[in-house]
Amino acid sequence: MSRDRPSAGPPGQVAGGWRAGDPVAARRFAQVGELQLDSGGTLPGVQVAYETWGRPNAARDNAVLICHALTGDAHVVGPAGPGQPTPGWWDGLVGEYLDPDDWYVVAANVLGGCQGTTGPSSPGPDGKPWGSRFPSITIRDQVAAEAGLASVLGIDRWAAVIGGSMGGMRALEWPLMFPDRVVTAVVLASTGYATAEQIAWCAPQLAAIESDPFWLGGDYYTEGVAPVAGLGIARRIAHVTYRSEYELATRFGRRPQGDGRFAVESYLDHHAAKLAARFDPGSYVVLSRAMNSHDIGRDRGGLEAALHGLKSRLVVAAVDSDRLYPARLSSELVDAYPDAGPLHLIKSPYGHDGFLIELAQVGTLIADSLGA
């Protein structure tokens, strides 16, 4: 057995994520063809998995795009079931705050993901998983793939593009890349660029996955193994940044679990196991690096210059207890683009995840923004 290739069991699907042949659930698929990448290269045969709620109106001006965060997918609302291991990650948003009788809501699994959109676990042109051959992509490439989906759906202009965290990065890039295709951009708990600290938090997560003996350089898909231990460590690190110190202190304190672990350790272990069961480590690496690349000022003269010619309405909200994407980063966007109006502050003890948890505050803001 070579040092860099541990013994593998019989080939099979080990890593989480959706694969062709799995139950489709509510997914639909759009073939958007060859994608020109930010790097100058191309990615052939791009497929985008998506879900929709409601219908386009006669004028086709009621379409809303929901952009998910790092480990999300197109399943915004709805139950878990065959082919869909988790319930909707923003359950209650569509229906209660976005009425499908009024809005045609679309959500797509992001480029590089693992829930039906082309990513490292997808078949390449030779039929084998892309693996290490999958190109480096950026947030702008992800938006370009979503624009391809919009064209397939016949949506020339979004009434709104809405997203938080990594989804907020895309919601911000959308009106910059396609200024005539977005009426309102709602950016939640996000930033105009990846900061040094965000990149630093990401570094040990990437190291954990790529140091796992079953990473195999990213080409583990046909080996019957997967770097799920490394993915679990990455999730533990990330999840601490998603929650506030106050919540962890008040919820867990120093309480022992009874099995040699503190309760907070058990909590992190639980979330690590959940992610490993549904997500692909290769996608985690690709998407994390895409987030690190995020900078709306790149090749546009900086943050303020990038926003100067913005044609879309911009709505920016931060979570007051967010330590990963602190409110000051959202304030920078508002300061650079005063037409955005005041910064909306979501009050929450939960930290970064508050943009998902505080549905009443966020849903009301979204509904009010669309009503305006």
From TrEMBL:
Predominant localisation class: cytoplasm
Superkingdom as given in the UniProt entry: Bacteria
UniProt cross-references to InterPro entries, sorted A to Z: AB_hydrolase_1, AB_hydrolase_fold, HAT_MetX-like
Enzyme class: transferase
Active site residues per record: 165 (nucleophile), 322, 352
Location of the region described as Disordered in the Swiss-Prot/TrEMBL record: 1-20
NCBIfam families the UniProt entry points to: homoserO_Ac_trn, PRK00175.1
HAMAP family in the cross-refs: MetX_acyltransf
Protein name, entry field: Homoserine O-acetyltransferase
Native source species: Kribbella alba
